[in-house]
Specification:
Layout lengths: L4 E2 L4 E6 L5 E7 L9 H11 L16 E5 L1 E2 L2 E2 L4 E6 L6 H5 L10 H8 L15 H17 L3 E9 L2 E2 L7 H5 L11 H16 L6 E8 L13 H10 L4 E6 L10 H4 L3 E3 L6 E3 L7 E2 L2 E2 L4 E7 L9 E5 L4 E5 L10 H22 L16
Antiparallel strand pairs: 1-2, 2-3, 3-7, 4-7, 5-6, 8-9, 8-10, 10-16, 11-16, 12-13, 14-15, 17-18
Helix pairs in contact: 1-4, 1-9, 4-9, 7-9
The structure holds flavin mononucleotide.
Length: 373
């Protein structure tokens, strides 16, 4: 079965390849009456696009969104929303030279093995460019969540072995992480990360890292056990982003080293709200696949960028003989900062869908949605 759609009620289908006419998204399930303009979407796309700093790809992609359907007089109409971003700044030539040489670390070989006939230019459908569509859809999801006071944050917590302790940074510092090019909440550590990335780039190499995404003010009760548990849906959403090779929720892999007495989040009453809270958040806001009202926290491992200038060994698919390849072109020496808005978008898509499934968002008319209070 094709796998280009995501979500049950807020249903997103992305389309397009890196070097074709456009990439885009159709979203079915957005209720009528939500105020929406291209600038709402553009500001999120501007956070994802390359060419914005010296540590991301210098490709000059403007990524200007066009809303083709589903919005009339500044508001959604309840009909499918189609958004496209035209591909204007691509170069086919570097890919013609290596079209029979699958790039190590890329999806070239597996697409060729599975489909045979593949648009190999720029990674085609497997290109990071596909995430334009996710970020565009996520902008609408974020806008709906914001109406309920739900805030989605994201930042880079580790690059090339240089990291911060995410439990020691404030939510406000994370909100300001976009102010440095690596999107790390601690600007001193950010500088060290940038130096590591620059060094890798000079050496024709690349580095990986870890991105954290957080949802604040989510109501308790989101998630449908047993197969649509909230953590299971978040893991799938984040893992579907290119270059992501690991996902953890809350304390995640660190739980393996803890005792139960350390790992269990104990319950207490919040004196301000009278609601049940936990004194720690090792569960990352989710118990039994259902949100518990604490911040939802997920982390993603981003592998080092596959496209590197250093010589590597591959197979020539025409001759079936070993060959050497050096990947030319304008690539991100670390994908981490660009993954931040994509991961935020995927978390927003999961949460808006579950908010709809839980009955908070009216499925037809947005203004009849019920508030969290
Ligand atoms: C926003 C974004 C930008 C990316 N840019 C690049 C890039 O410039 N060069 C590259 O080799 N991979 C890039 N990737 C990663 C590849 O798309 C991905 O590694 C490849 O399709 C193989 O898939 P996998 O790593 O998930 O197995 C990017 C991914 C994302 C999400």
């Amino acid at each position: 079965m094709p796998g280009n759609s995501f979500g049950q009620i807020f249903r997103v289908t992305t389309f397009g390849e890196s070097h074709n006419v456009a990439v885009g998204v159709i979203i079915d399930g957005v209720p009528a009456g939500l105020e929406l303009s291209e600038s709402d979407v553009q500001k999120e796309l501007n956070r994802r696009r390359p060419g914005v700093s010296e540590i991301v790809s210098p490709r000059a992609e403007l990524d200007k969104v066009e809303i083709l359907s589903g919005v009339f007089n500044g508001k959604t109409t309840g009909t499918p929303i189609t958004m496209i971003v035209r591909n204007i700044a691509f170069e086919d030539e570097p890919y013609e030279i290596i079209k029979d040489l699958p790039r190590p670390g890329h999806a070239d070989l597996t697409y060729w093995l599975k489909y045979g006939h593949v648009d190999y230019r720029g990674g085609g459908r497997a290109s990071g460019r596909e995430t334009v569509a996710r970020v565009a859809a996520g902008a609408i999801a974020k806008k709906i969540l914001k109406k309920f006071g739900i805030d989605i944050l994201g930042h880079v917590i580790e690059v090339a072995g240089i990291g911060i302790d995410p439990e020691k940074v404030t939510f406000d510092a994370i909100r300001n992480a976009d102010k440095n090019p690596i999107r790390c909440a601690d600007s001193n550590v950010a500088e060290k990360m940038v130096q590591k990335i620059k060094r890798a780039k000079e050496e024709g190499d690349s580095v990986g890292g870890i991105v954290e995404v957080i949802a604040l003010n989510c109501p308790a009760g989101l998630g449908d056990p047993v197969f649509d548990k909230l953590d299971a849906d978040i893991a799938k959403a984040l893992m579907s982003i290119g270059a992501v090779k690991g996902v953890e929720i809350g304390a995640g892999f660190r739980l393996a080293k803890m005792r139960g007495s350390e790992a269990n989040d104990q319950f207490a009453i919040d004196p301000k709200t009278g609601k049940i809270i936990t004194t720690t958040n090792n569960a990352g806001g989710i118990l039994g696949g259902i949100s518990n009202g604490m911040p939802i926290i997920a982390r993603l491992v981003v592998k080092p960028t596959s496209s590197i200038a250093l010589p590597q060994t591959t197979i020539n698919l025409k001759t079936m003989k070993e060959a050497k390849i050096e990947v030319k072109g304008k690539h991100d020496p670390s994908i981490c900062p660009r993954v931040v808005p994509v991961a935020e978008a995927m978390l927003a898509l999961v949460l808006v869908d579950h908010m709809m499934r839980a009955g908070y968002v009216h499925l037809t008319k947005f203004e009849e949605s019920s508030s969290l209070k």
